[in-house]
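RETRY 2/3 - previous attempt timed out on the joint model. Re-submitting the same 228-residue input unchanged.
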Amino acid sequence: AQSVTQLGSHVSVSEGALVLLRCNYSSSVPPYLFWYVQYPNQGLQLLLKYTSAATLVKGINGFEAEFKKSETSFHLTKPSAHMSDAAEYFCAVTPNQAGTALIFGKGTTLSVSS
Amino acid sequence: DTGVSQDPRHKITKRGQNVTFRCDPISEHNRLYWYRQTLGQGPEFLTYFQNEAQLEKSRLLSDRFSAERPKGSFSTLEIQRTEQGDSAMYLCASSSDRGSYGYTFGSGTRLTVV
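RETRY 2/3 succeeded.
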């Protein structure tokens, strides 16, 4: 079975600082991995996805993530935080089979201070 | 393409009443998913349709919950005899079995059972 662990339920950074949100996965088969962002009272917006192509994935809004099979990790980074990045971030996994539902982590709340 | 639409955005109901939510997926997407998200948690998978066929149901989907997708387009999620524990955000997502592997989420329906 697949599962996702997001380390740190809350991360605080200063504007302009590096953002690092951690995600470790468990999967018995090669996974597809996703990062989503959620603003208050809204649905989830896809930031980026790994689907077995390049291990370094670039997404929207300057975010990127690196798939490390040896560490079973898919951490999300952004070199310089912006106030508008403050939101809830979810890592998700699915086996690379068409149609299988996403399994989400519990989420990490990112706060950005000026 | 107007994205995934969910209706209503908010629903307040009294305990014991029935409620029904609607989801309109992206028109060319043949897969549709329902998730439930409670405060401070990641979305939890409820059920999945491919076209009109309901292919997977979570153990979270008790017998008070029923979902349909009669013509392979829009879907409805009904909760009978609502309980306070049903209060949550109900999210719908759709995807395609062709092209890039991605899920698009709607803005959700927030249910409050009083």
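The mean pLDDT of chain B is 92. Closing ticket.
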